[in-house]
Write a structure and sequence with these properties.
Helix 1 packs parallel to helix 10 and helix 5 packs antiparallel against helix 6. With 360 residues, the chain is of the alpha/beta class. It contains 16 helices and 12 strands. The protein binds guanosine-5'-diphosphate. This is Ribosome-binding ATPase YchF.
């Protein structure tokens, strides 16, 4: 499964957040045979459409899509030089598909900040710098070999140009995620190097209650990390919320003026940062969300349910969620002509409710 790797400086609330992420009864109920590793937090992607579908079909249960987070032990200044966790840290982060940095915004005199003051911009910079330095090392090591291979016509000169372009971006102190496209660097050519800063980023601003309501400050921080997505939450509150019954949790959220928990928001932003989307199936047994990559075709989507579905794919019967809800039943949607028959080239849209036809 695709994962987001959680990083951040010490004492910013990573463990607090991660403990909340890993406490999940929903998953235990739906994936009883899943072996969940201790450093992996699997959270359901909130999707109100599933309950609506379950109502229409009389489903026994709903099965949400999930998002996985890997806890990557603390980063410190000098990590790229083998100080702190050094190479082990970098190896773990390399395996993640996206990077989720927890940034401390809350102030609490009882919780020491490693650099002695709470400064989100500086913390973001510290972590980015370590990752930038690690990528520079990787790229600079690749240059001599590539130059030789290009001379010997064993490598594409475009790859060497991309490496040099990437080095220039990083030397300005910019991550590749933020700077590569603008600089015309084709990251696809560099995929074999598994560069850390070319991964998509998302930021969790760990804020206290007052900070959650400070819209001007939030806008500032959002602008600071753009184009990366971000979420504002209070990790301490989130870890309390997961201990409560759903009704009590909703009440506690409402008392702070929120409609959705920070973890739910994080699941959503994380899911889209990974470039994922869902399609839906529904029946008496279950209403379920299936995870696919954006841009996948109907047969690829069918393959997520079962490889036989992809191999023997004939067609997909597709109705958009809104059309199905308007009609009130699959039969009525059909008689209104809202159920489309799609072939193997159909590109799935988010919220498609699908039934596949296939040969076995
Ligand atoms: P980590 O080192 O990044 O894993 O940080 P921890 O999750 O261990 O948190 C460090 C300390 O900060 C702990 O004492 C937490 O209870 C506290 N803490 C975490 N999140 C918050 C928060 O949102 N507000 C406040 N006031 N304290 C927090």
């Amino acid at each position: 499964a695709l994962t987001l790797g959680i990083v951040g400086l010490p004492n910013v609330g990573k463990s607090t957040l991660f403990n909340a992420l890993t406490r999940n009864d929903v998953l235990a109920a739906n994936y009883p045979f899943a072996t969940i590793e201790p450093n992996v937090g699997v959270v359901p992607l909130p999707d109100r459409r599933l309950d609506v579908l379950a109502g229409i079909s009389g489903s026994e249960k709903v099965v949400p899509a999930t998002v996985s987070f890997v806890d990557i032990a603390g980063i410190v200044k000098g990590a790229s030089e083998g100080e702190g966790l050094g190479n082990q840290f970098l190896a773990t982060i390399r395996e993640a598909d996206a990077i989720c940095q927890v940034v401390r915004v809350f102030s609490d005199p009882d919780v020491v900040h490693v650099d002695g003051r709470v400064d989100p911009a500086a913390d973001i910079d510290t972590v980015a710098t370590e990752l930038v330095l690690a990528d520079l090392q990787t790229l600079e090591k690749a240059v001599p070999r590539l130059e030789k291979d290009v001379k010997g016509k064993r490598a594409d000169p475009a790859v060497l140009a991309a490496v040099q372009g990437a080095i220039a971006v990083l030397e300005r102190g910019t991550t590749l995620f933020q700077g590569a496209t603008a600089a015309g660097v084709d990251l696809a050519l560099l995929s074999e190097l598994t560069l850390l800063t070319s991964k998509p980023f998302v930021y969790v601003f760990n804020t206290d209650e007052a900070g959650l309501g400070d819209t001007a400050r939030r806008a500032e921080l959002e602008a600071l990390v753009a184009p990366a997505g971000c979420v504002f939450l209070d990790a301490a509150v989130e870890s309390e919320l997961v201990e409560l019954e759903p009704e009590d949790a909703a009440e506690m959220l409402a008392s702070t003026g929120q409609t959705e928990s920070g973890l739910d928001q994080l699941a959503r932003v994380g899911f889209s940062t990974l470039g994922l989307q869902t399609y839906l199936t529904t029946g008496p047994k279950e209403s379920r969300a299936w995870t696919i990559r954006r841009g996948w075709t109907a047969p690829q989507a069918a393959g997520v349910i079962h490889t036989d579905f992809q191999r023997g794919f004939i067609k997909a019967e597709v109705v958009s969620f809104d059309d199905l809800v308007d009609a009130g039943s699959h039969a009525e949607a059909k008689s209104r002509g809202k159920v489309r028959i799609e072939g193997k080239d159909y590109v799935m849209a988010d919220g498609d409710v699908v039934e596949f036809r296939f040969n076995v």
